[in-house]
Amino acid sequence: MRKFVNVMLLVAMISFVFVGLAFAQEQAAPAASGGGIESFAELVFGSGMVKWFKDGGWAMWPILFVTIYGLAYIIWKFIALLTGKVNLNNFLNKIIPLIKEKKFKEAQEIAKNTRGPVASIIYAGLMKADGGVAAVEKAIENAAMIEMSYLEKGFLEMSTAITLAPMLGFLGTVAGMISAFDAIAAARAVDATIVASGIKIALITTEAGLIVAIPVQFFNNLFVTMVVAGL
Questions:
Q1: pLDDT digits (tens, 9 = 90+) for 158-204
Q2: pLDDT at 231
């Protein structure tokens, strides 16, 4: 987990560096278009996506960071659950006959060499098989708590992305509406062309926040279901 946190910190630092470079580029050459970062983004995502991002204003940058944050945890969680998945029926069909025959050493080897939380829990219980039923139950309870805490890792981070993305979108919406009303106040007249820019920013940021939150919510629910169902 510490390694993953370090990777996330590196991603955050890179994101902030890109944001700083983008703003510096805009201030240094506001009239220029198709600069280094922008050209690269257009090559990867297309000019339409880049224009949509730019039209959303400053709020799109923190939304982008939340997107990277949520996507990183989705990928990590998917890999973690995939590597922990095991054919439970086959595993139990091997373990149960050995336990009935009191061949605990053989059962321990099978459990030790089988991936997944279920195998780890059974292995912990088998290690205390000589200590009686109470010792086995205690070992299984402790191992189950440890494995469950591991399986639940990442859910808080994904929930954070689910919450922050639309909130940042709504913040951009408020900023866009303030900009629209400022334009009306400056023009001293109500004209659709005057407020269009601010309203466009408001709608784009709301859209971006929901685009991020909805898939992260979907994968979060999917992973929770996998954990509850025992993988």
A1: 999 999 999 999 999 998 888 888 887 887 766 677 777 788 888 89
A2: 55
121 within 8 A of 147, measured Cβ to Cβ: yes
CB atoms within 10 A of CB 213: 23
Interior angle at CA 194, CA 208 and CA 190, nearest 5 = 120
Phi/psi class of residue 154: alpha, beta or left (left: φ > 0; alpha: ψ in -120 to 50)?
left
Rg of the chain taking only CA atoms, in angstroms:
26
Query: Cβ of 187: how many Cβ atoms within 10 Å?
Result: 12
35: CB partners within 8 A, 6+ apart: 25, 29
DSSP H helical ranges for 85-191:
88-100, 104-112, 117-127, 133-151, 155-187
Can you tell me the distance from the alpha carbon of 228 to that of 230, in angstroms, rounded to the nearest whole number? 5
pTM flag (> 0.85): no
The alpha carbon dihedral of 39, 45, 46, 47 has a sign of: negative
Distance CA 164, CA 65 (A): 10
CB-count burial class (<10 Å; 0-12, 13-18, 19+) for 32: exposed
